[in-house]
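Query structure, 831 tokens:
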């Protein structure tokens, strides 16, 4: 009987309209291998084979990840792993037996295979070794980061550490594939031991006792050896230095995957953190690590065994190995305190940086304590000759040995050694620029790379780098993608407009001094006053429309509905705008995604501890808001009747007390109920920007469904009770059942809208990013689709719950271009 992988493979192959022979011819995987996988005769396939099959089936991202999950399911479920697919030599030894089995299988294949593919002895599966990127730890649980609701695992790891290891493995395997690191093979990343001035005393690195003699370690190596190099360092602290584009991030990614593949159960889990977003003067390293871990894995916000979150416990107990990528991206004035904060800890870690920025921080304070350091070296001409020709299309029959890169490589080889390197030879020493050159000239047949040899046009390396960066965006946006990552049709984006939007995003990140492109912070590129004003106006319009519609439905008078909606909308906008300013703007904060969801049927582990504090905070906040709202309403309505100041003040105070008591009780009870219904997200929930946005939208929707009827019912019923209780002390009060019902409905809907748009990350995203920024031309209307499209084209990369530009150099280039364009075009408003 076919296993899970075989069933998935057969279904996807049938959906693609391919027979086993056609798939074998396209993928160069033998028919025998494909048949064996589909019928369950062969299990646990090599990941190279899985990737070949997925590529030729032209799978969508979700289908690709489904196939990957099925391929690794047996190991994760604790079954005894079967033999991997035999190599070509092993198949040759078992040829006679295989041919005999093929005849037997042919009889059952007609019953098992709906396509009725006949047996065929096709070419053998190429004996490709398992590449480093596909090596897996047996405990790895490859839930796809792109799927917000991954299928449940019947036997998931019970240890949060092992679950985290599985999530990290799946995430970075997918990211490595998206970045085409293995296509056609990884560019060589080599290193040498860094100068002694950037390294601590070897006795400290080797953890030797006093008076012991220390001999420096020879740490020279290349990409596939990074995990082994790290383990040779007793202090487990390593600094990776390399100039811009030299491959530091790819090395960090490869380190994580290789370390996880060979990781023992007692070893910490390596997790990549973009340290450029850390401000050491406002938050400690451990707290920041826990916050970032919670952002990318919201399930780890749940309380652990103590009072702290699971994320904080893992960090404090040393179960996390921080891979701190981008020390050079920390703001200039913060690198020294950042290095001092790192030296104040004994955490094992890996730190990447450009040499100049790290050396400057070292000169101001000290080297990273007990840390060895390595320095990445440049690519060689032999590396280019081995790589670039294999990235182009195969030549035609007329000249099978010809290649578009041959004239370039020949010219570089013939360059006299006694002269300085040409601009092209200098530029192509880093993997980043080689990757850009490949995208522009190898993946685009009508572009001739020989033009890069024009020294009159490109007289310096800087001009040539700008040329590659300038042409990268138009090149990757030349073709329309076949489908979005969400499975729908792809809208396509114009290259010029995409460049404009990407320039705004790069400028936005530069202003925020962070490499993390988070959907909940996209509106922070606006001035604080603008954010508050836009929030107030949008909220006032929404609540005014709701109030006017309800008033028209109840009273049937359009003029009265317009007047009532305008007054209520204006007051609500002012009040909620003030609440937004007081909560976020005045404190320089922003709404962040909730790490919880609402569950009507409670389960153990929910965050019931939030109910008590929320009851107090909600009651006080609601009372203040209700008193202010009642005071304003009483003043406005009384002023329309009389100009007697004492009468106006009396009515305003009475209305303020009534509304304050009612809204205080209603808000406190509603906040308390929301706290009681909150429960942590699943610990193994995979997060990417879209899934986190979807989760938060669902949470806010549930909050609205709870808030509106609860708040409305308490306000409507409580207003009558409050009037009865205060009737004697405050004088004669007039209040009808119709007025109570109307107040309850309007308050329920208006309060829910106000809470969602003012105090939640999704509400701020809706107001600022989905409406205001597209309305002013800064971003497209389909923001999420545009970001996913840029990710699929290789402009952006994913780092957990946020996007980042493919490289800081690209971000800087786009931001600079955006600023230059803004100087000549008033269409773009500056930050």
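Result returned for the query:
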């Amino acid at each position: 009987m076919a296993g899970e992988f075989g069933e998935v493979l057969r279904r996807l192959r049938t959906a693609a309209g391919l027979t086993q022979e056609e798939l074998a011819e396209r993928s160069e995987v033998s028919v025998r291998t494909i048949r064996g996988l589909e019928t369950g005769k062969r299990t646990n396939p090599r990941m190279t084979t899985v990737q070949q099959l997925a590529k030729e089936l032209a799978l969508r991202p979700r289908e690709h990840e489904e196939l990957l999950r099925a391929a690794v399911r047996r190991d994760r479920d604790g079954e005894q792993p079967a033999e991997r697919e035999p190599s070509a030599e092993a198949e040759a030894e078992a040829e006679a037996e295989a041919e005999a089995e093929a005849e037997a299988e042919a009889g059952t294949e007609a019953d098992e295979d709906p396509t009725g593919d006949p047996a065929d002895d096709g070419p053998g599966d190429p004996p490709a070794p398992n590449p480093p990127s596909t090596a897996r730890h047996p405990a790895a649980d490859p839930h796809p980061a792109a799927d917000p609701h991954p299928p449940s695992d019947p036997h998931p790891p019970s240890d949060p550490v092992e679950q985290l290891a599985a999530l990290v493995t799946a995430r970075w395997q997918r990211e490595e594939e998206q970045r085409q690191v293995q296509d056609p093979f990884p560019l060589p990343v080599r290193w040498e031991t860094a100068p002694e001035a950037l390294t601590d005393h070897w006795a400290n690195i080797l953890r030797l006792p006093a008076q012991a003699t220390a001999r420096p370690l020879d740490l020279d190596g290349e990409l596939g050896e990074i995990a082994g190099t790290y383990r040779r360092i007793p202090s487990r602290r390593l600094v990776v230095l390399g100039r811009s584009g030299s491959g530091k991030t790819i090395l960090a990614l490869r380190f994580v995957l290789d370390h996880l593949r060979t990781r023992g159960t007692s070893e910490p889990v390596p997790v990549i953190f973009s340290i450029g977003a850390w401000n050491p003067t406002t938050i400690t390293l451990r707290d920041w690590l826990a916050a970032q871990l919670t952002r990318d894995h919201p399930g780890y916000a749940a309380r652990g065994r103590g009072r702290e979150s699971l994320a904080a416990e893992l960090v404090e107990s040393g179960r996390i190995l921080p891979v701190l990528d981008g020390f050079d991206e920390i703001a200039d004035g913060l690198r020294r305190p950042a290095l001092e904060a790192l030296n104040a800890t004994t955490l094992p870690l890996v730190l990447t940086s450009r040499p100049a920025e790290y050396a400057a921080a070292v000169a101001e304070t000290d080297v990273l304590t007990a840390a060895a350091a390595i320095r990445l070296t440049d690519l060689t001409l032999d590396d280019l000759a081995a790589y670039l020709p294999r990235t182009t299309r195969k030549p035609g029959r007329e000249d099978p040995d010809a290649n578009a890169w041959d004239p370039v490589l020949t010219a570089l080889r013939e360059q006299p050694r006694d002269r300085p390197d040409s601009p092209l030879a200098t530029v192509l020493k880093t993997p980043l620029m080689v990757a850009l050159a490949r995208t522009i000239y190898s993946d685009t047949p009508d572009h001739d790379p020989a033009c890069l040899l024009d020294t009159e046009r490109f007289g310096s390396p800087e001009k040539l780098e700008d040329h590659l960066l300038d042409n990268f965006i138009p090149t990757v946006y030349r073709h329309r993608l076949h489908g979005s990552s969400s499975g729908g049709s792809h809208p396509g984006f114009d290259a010029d407009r995409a460049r404009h939007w990407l320039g705004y995003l790069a400028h936005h990140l530069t202003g925020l001094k962070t490499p993390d492109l988070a959907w909940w912070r996209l509106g922070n590129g606006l001035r604080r006053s603008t954010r508050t004003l836009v929030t107030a106006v949008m909220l006032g319009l929404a609540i005014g429309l709701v109030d006017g519609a309800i008033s028209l439905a109840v009273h049937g008078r359009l003029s009265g509905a317009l007047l009532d909606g305008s007054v209520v909308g204006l007051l609500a906008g002012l009040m909620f705008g003030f609440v937004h300013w007081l909560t976020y703007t005045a404190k320089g904060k922003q709404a962040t995604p909730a790490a919880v969801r609402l569950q009507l049927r409670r389960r153990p582990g929910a965050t019931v501890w939030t109910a008590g504090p929320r009851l107090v905070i909600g009651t006080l906040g609601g009372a203040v808001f209700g008193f202010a709202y009642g005071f304003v309403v009483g003043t406005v309505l009384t002023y329309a009747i009389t100009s007697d100041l004492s009468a106006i003040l009396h009515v305003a105070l009475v209305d303020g007390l009534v509304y304050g008591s009612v809204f205080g009780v209603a808000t406190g009870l509603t906040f308390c109920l929301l706290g009681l219904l909150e429960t942590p997200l699943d610990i193994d929930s995979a997060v990417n920007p879209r899934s986190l946005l979807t989760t938060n939208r669902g949470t806010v929707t549930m909050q609205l469904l709870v808030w509106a009827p609860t708040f409305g019912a308490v306000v409507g019923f409580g207003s009558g009770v409050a009037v009865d209780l205060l009737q004697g002390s405050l004088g004669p009060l007039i209040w009808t059942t119709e007025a109570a019902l109307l107040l309850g409905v309007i308050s329920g809907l208006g309060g829910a809208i106000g809470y969602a748009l003012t105090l939640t990350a999704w509400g701020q995203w809706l107001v600022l990013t989905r409406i205001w920024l597209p309305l002013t031309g800064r971003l497209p209307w389909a923001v999420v689709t545009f970001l996913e499209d840029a990710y699929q084209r290789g402009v952006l990369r994913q780092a957990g719950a946020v996007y980042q530009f493919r490289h800081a150099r690209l971000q800087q280039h786009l931001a600079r271009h955006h600023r230059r364009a803004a100087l000549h075009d008033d269409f773009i408003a500056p930050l």
